[in-house]
Amino acid sequence: MYNLLMVYQEGTWDQDEFVLELARFLEYTAQPLIDRFGALDQQTIQYLKGIPALFAYEDRGREAGLPARVGKIDDIQVRYGGVRITWSFDASVSPIPALALREMFAALDVAADRSWEHTRTHWAVKDADLYDVLLRYGLLENDQTPPPKVFVSYSWDSPEHIEWVRNLVNALRMNGIDAISDRTHLRFGQNLPHFMEQSAACDRVIVVCTENYMNRANGRVGGVGYEHLVTAADLANDPLSMRFIPVIRDPRDAAHMPTNLRGRFYVNLSNGPDFNGNFQELVRDLHNAVPPIPPIGRRPSF
């Protein structure tokens, strides 16, 4: 899934922000996606910020139209009559020439032949894998490095909490991480203990900490308790292991860590101005792309 933002005004994507008429949000979008994202509430905003975005210019048959860029939406603000966005580009993807983009319209679900979608300023959400299309059309190099494999452990506190975790998993996968959870990978008839033991084969384990999760983990109750037995065994063998990353979605849950995860550096993914920065730090850490430690300089002369 990806965001498609199409504008007429040249140079729009060279600016710092853009305000789209609210009525043009989700134009040329399939009805099930309109039903899902139409409210543009906080949960929807976080999801849309977590999927890729294609920033394009209207194609009116010009042979030398402006190139499109690939990146992500950094911020979304709903204003009176409009939606304000800011964005950043993916430096690993070169600008896409207008003619090359035109050839990909069908694969990207751009309704050029049917409805002249490519000639109207709008924001659509498309059920297509943007990076896969770019790869198939030779606009993206095939990265041979296997993605980090991450198991997401959580408790079924509420339907809203389950949806939040599902969005987190989707956002991680959109950022090149092979994130695994029961809601995305578990199939009917599959052996539950075997599935939960997959965490042992993953590079990292994200533990979404809540009071309910803590109680079930400490009490060895249900699936959470079983998963935590695996965690406890791993930490017993290597107390300094960094495989397990506590994540909270409410600042109050900083006090709700399972016993053997207390005192560990956690990631705060609660709603607020720091969400995007904290999420990107998590992504960099999972990709082992943290900034190098500065070298030690020479001893000063005293």
Automatic annotation (TrEMBL):
InterPro entries, A to Z: SEFIR_dom, TIR_dom, Toll_tir_struct_dom_sf
Gene3D superfamilies for this protein: Toll/interleukin-1 receptor homology (TIR) domain (3.40.50.10140)
BP GO annotations: signal transduction
Residue stretches spanning the membrane: none
Chain ranges of the SEFIR domain: 147-278
Keywords for the protein's UniProt record, in alphabetical order: Receptor
Translocase keyword on record: no
Keyword Isomerase belongs to the record: no
Record-given protein name: Toll/interleukin-1 receptor domain-containing protein
Organism from which the protein derives: Stenotrophomonas maltophilia
